[in-house]
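Q: What does the assembly look like in three dimensions?
Context provided by user:
Components: two
Sequences:
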Amino acid sequence: MRLTSLKFRHVGPFGAEGVALEGLSAGLNVVCETNEFGKSTILKALETVLFKPFSSADKQVKALRTDGSDEAPEGEITFTSEGRSYRLQKRFLKKKSALLMDAETGEILATDRGAEEKMTELLRAERFDSGPSGLLWVRQGQSMDGVSDDGQVASRLEGELGALIGGEKARDYLTKVEIELAAYLTKTGVLKKGGPLHAARTAVEITQTELADAVRMRDLTKATGTQLARIQSEILRLESDATETDMDVQIKETRDAIALAQSYRNALALIESKRDQAKDSAQRASERQAAQIEKLVVFNAATDKLTAIMAGHENAIKVRDEKRIARDILRTEVNALDLRLAEAGRVRSRRETLARQTQRLEEIGRETTRLTHLLEQLDQIETEASKLTDAISELPLVRRNDVETLRRTADQKRQIEAEISALSTRLFLDLQPAGKGKVTVDGVALDSGAFELSGSAVLSFEGIGELRSDDGRLHELSKEQARLGAEYEALLTRFNVADVADAARAADQRQEWEAERKHLTTEIGRLAPQGRAAFETDLAAGLSEAENLSDQISDLGAEIEIGDETDFMDQLRSMRAKLTVLDEGLEQLQDTLAKADREQARLRERITGLNLPATESERTTQANELAAEKLQFEADTRAATAKAVEMATQAPAQPLEMLNARLTRLEKSALQSRGRMEALKTEAAGLTARRDAAFEGEDADAKVAALQSSLQKNEDNLLRHTRAKDVRALLRDTLTQTQARLRAAYTAPVAAELEPLLSMVIPGARAGLGDSLGVDTVHRDGRSEAISQLSGGTQEQFAILTRLAYARLLARGGASAPVILDDALVYADDARRDAMFDVLNHVSSGDDPIQLLYLSCHRGATNRLGGTRISPNPWV
Amino acid sequence: MLRMAFTFIHTADWQLGKSFGQFSAEAAGALRLARQAVIEQIARVAREQDAVHVLVAGDVWDSAIPSHSTLRQPLAIMGEAQDIHWWLLPGNHDPDGPDGLWDRIDAVKPENVHTLRDATPIEIETGVFILPAPWARIQHGQDLTAWMDTAQTPEGALRIGLAHGSVQGFGTEGDTDREIIPPSRAESARLDYLALGDWHARREIQARIQYPGTPEPDRHKTGARGQVLAVTLEAGASPQVKVIPTAQYDWPILKIDLHPDAVQDSMADLRTRFGSGQPLRRTHARLDVSGAMTAAEWPVFERFVEEMRGEMASLDLRGEEHVRLVVVPEDIEALDAQGSVREAADALMTRSENPDLSRDDRQIASEALRLLFRYAGESA
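A: Here is the predicted structure of the complete assembly.
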């Protein structure tokens, strides 16, 4: 379908004059008018005439009327379809009618309902299975959802797609299965908490835990029973053992045996005690007798010894007194000799002093000799030095650096003289024979011929005069020569030398002698660092001391002839030895006397300490009594021993210690058995109580069995719910996949048309078509975005591109549908708008152009759009 | 010594205190009470049969460590029947072992309750001897009846063997290592009757060797229900054995092979079979299903199952996951949809029949398809 012209009357602002858009091209048509012109009224009128039954009187139709007018809205649309031109005329409300005629011939093709049915046919196409078909007429809007006002077309398309993918039923089934599946899973596919599957799984886990607990409790109960049985068996065994061994009887018998053994042991001990007492008494009596005898022996010995000591004591006193007299005489003689020996000692001391002074005198002599020698050396060196000083003073006063000055001046002088000589002149002398020998240079006569006349030479012409050079340079050199000659002469005079060689010799000699004199001065300093005067002072002091010592030695030699000390010493030593012997003898005697006194006292004390009767007869009586007592005790001992031997034959069969050990063992064993039994019974009571407590509750085995059954049931339930979930998931997936596949097949042609258009506006972008037949997803730059997330301008651009894609698809199928854009692209930026304008021009040209009707109030923008300008005119 | 006819009640496997944890607490409690109540029923049967002795061939209790109440209440019930002598034998569930169960029993039992803890002849009545084979632990690994061959009893006395375990060559349940009682024991031990326990189903090995089964079943079984045996022995004659029902609950196992378009008939048949025994409220049934159903039949069958579960003590449905879904064109039409729904249904159908997938995955696909059909049915 292609629109050719649109005419309306009694609609909106157009009133009776009406409005007509004529000359619509097959491509892009642009209507640019100001706001309030009535563009929207034109679109509403076009929609009403195309799709509203002529008999309709609904609000939309009534609202179409011109304000304040009762006139019926009417319209005439001229269009072509499948190569034929049609004109549709409709009038609403009053004199309502519909008329479809051939636009070229004017032939009426159908009227009223027939006309509308024919229009429906023209708007419809037959192809159904490869994308949308029929007329697509789309007004400006955001998406296909927003074009519900296109009536039949949008519904038609949705109906086609709905029928293809199952329509209401498919949605219903999918909704149902998703609702049921939502009970099991969340939207992200995770098990839903609180859902039946989750509950079933939880029940399984809880039951597993309960079962484990129940098994543990059952096993504990069983183990308790087993343990109880074992303990009861042990109790029986212990009781049986106790019966068989009859422990108490054994203990009693052992105790009786111990009593008998203890009694025997006591009786034996009593006898043995008596025996031991008698034996001890006999022993003591024997000891007392022996002590008495020993005392008597000691008494007699001490008495004899005391008598002897008293006799020797008097004799010793006599000897002591004699020795004291002899000692005093000898001591007097020794004292006299000591005096003489002291005198001899003093003489010996003076001799020693004399020897030391003589040695000192010898040392002083050696020192004065050395000093004298040194002074002689000094005298000799100082004499040599003085001679050198004299010789040096006689030399010209010139040194080596002076020689250099002199030599340099002489050299300069010679150089000047050489330069003067070098200033020569080449002359040719032609002498006449008369003149021969009359011309001389420096006294030498010249012959005829060429010769060199030096600057310094003077050519003498005998009798005539002289000839010399008058060169300027020669004058300067001559002056310099004179100056240097004067300077040279002054130096020779100053240094008192004849020439440079003389000066050099004098300088060398001076330097040599001065070095030698310096050496001598150094030697003098080395020999006499303190100076010569010090040597002379030391020498004088040494000579004086030597003289003094010589006098003292002479004096000592006169006194030394007093006596012989050695004789005195021998005599004195002999006398002192004798005196010592006497003193020692006296001391020994004194010690002996003291010792004899102490011995006497000791013996007397001992005799008293023996405590013996005073008289001999009394001492004899005492000895007899002690002997009788001893004999009596020995008899008692023999009797007690015999009785003990007799009792030994009556001893018990087992010793007391053995019996006590047995009793200890038996009592301990009995105690242990009682303790073990007590412990076992306590444990058995505890186990019985525990087991009884367990029996008070549920049947342990039954509980385990019940939980096992419950677990099985819960696991079955879990399987059932898992299966239910899997079944629903499969159904959902199958329905979704088949719907997606069919939708993709249906929308694929549209998507194919959309892609190149989209790339012209947004390069690289791809669009996904949704259930609403509009773009619902945009893919670009590797990510996907919902169309709703994009800006309003971009959404509008996608909506327009989608419509254009549908329209191109229809156009390629020979069922072209116009696309009307009402104030579109107002939100697009300049670049996008220009790109969209390119698209509009692209799709409205070529082999299968889309007819576009672009209505706008933006004259500036539309000026760049191109296309055919359509100016509204009154409907004449 | 010759004795006239002697009648006694032979029972076993009471397994008092069994938990029934697979059921709700209420149902489990009712089942436990039923196992106690059957003692009173056995006492009534004994009186009706003029029997004063009830021989319990092991597994009186389900556990060797029952609680006091589980232990004492049954003993109290037995004590109330003072005219009856109860002879209790330790079995593999309640052995006379270190758990001390039988000490506890001896400590509290009434006088008319007798425990058989030793393998020695017990004269329970003049000229009537019980030769017990008590269990001392859960696994003994030997034939406890062997001693009976050499057991001495007076000439002409009745010898009744009382044992617990499986008989060689007849084992169909329990551990094979317990199948060690030789079927010749009655003959070799000159027994007039060998009263056995262990098998919960009634079984006659020989005329003189019998299993009474449990008096109150505790699991699904095909065939017989709970009962005791009234046995009359007379010298020189075969035992006269009467089977006397005692149970409150039935535990049937029903099997059904479903066929498309015939499920309604199958359900009617099932309803009849469920109601053939005890009332439904005292019937714990197991239903094993197989075969195939259409999508339309499936919810009908599910409603039937829910209905039965409401009426019965319990219904254990098994094998539903193996029932094949048969999809007919009408089912697809019932979806009342086109496009993706049809394609999804086709995909699920293909997946449910894909041999490359695991059985589980195929079943999930089949159930997903059934769910889709259910939605269609709900929105229809």
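Follow-up: Chain A touches chain B through 52 residues (CB under 8 Å).
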